[in-house]
Automatic annotation (TrEMBL):
<keyword id="KW-0479">Metal-binding</keyword>
<dbReference type="Pfam" id="PF02256">
    <property type="entry name" value="Fe_hyd_SSU"/>
</dbReference>
<dbReference type="InterPro" id="IPR008953">
    <property type="entry name" value="Fe_hydrogenase_HydB"/>
</dbReference>
<dbReference type="InterPro" id="IPR006311">
    <property type="entry name" value="TAT_signal"/>
</dbReference>
<feature type="domain" description="Iron hydrogenase small subunit">
    <location>
        <begin position="31"/>
        <end position="95"/>
    </location>
</feature>
<dbReference type="InterPro" id="IPR036991">
    <property type="entry name" value="Fe_hydrogenase_ssu_sf"/>
</dbReference>
<dbReference type="InterPro" id="IPR003149">
    <property type="entry name" value="Fe_hydrogenase_ssu"/>
</dbReference>
<protein>
    <recommendedName>
        <fullName>Iron hydrogenase small subunit domain-containing protein</fullName>
    </recommendedName>
</protein>
<keyword id="KW-0408">Iron</keyword>
<keyword id="KW-0411">Iron-sulfur</keyword>
Length: 110
């Protein structure tokens, strides 16, 4: 089993809390922290609902205007050639150049 540093520290914290406080207090502490996370999520979603009038991109009037069939910039539609060309990324394989540089003795800190 592999464990990163953060997971190890978390596990040690839970074990120490369990050893010091006992089962019931540890359960209550975990439950209260999960309750806090739930309240925080609810407050973030509620704030977003109050602040942002348009929460979905397909409902955004500016996006609808861009894809308008009469005079929109991307009048071909969401899957048209121009939108694909402008809005999608392209993969370029550079592993051969990287291997060539490593063969010449370059060292990388990745």
């Amino acid at each position: 089993m592999k464990m990163n540093r953060r997971g190890f520290i978390k596990a040690c914290g839970f074990m120490a809390g369990y050893a010091v406080l006992g089962v019931n207090l540890t359960k209550e502490a975990v439950a209260s922290s999960m309750n806090f996370v739930g309240l925080r999520q609810k407050s973030v979603y509620d704030a977003d609902a109050k602040i942002y009038k348009v929460r979905k991109s397909q409902d955004n009037p500016m996006i609808a205007k861009i894809y308008d069939h009469k005079d929109g910039f991307l009048h071909e539609g969401p899957c048209g050639h121009m939108s694909h060309h402008l809005l999608h990324t392209h993969y370029v394989d550079r592993s051969a150049r990287l291997a060539a540089l490593k063969a010449k003795g370059f060292k990388f800190n990745l």
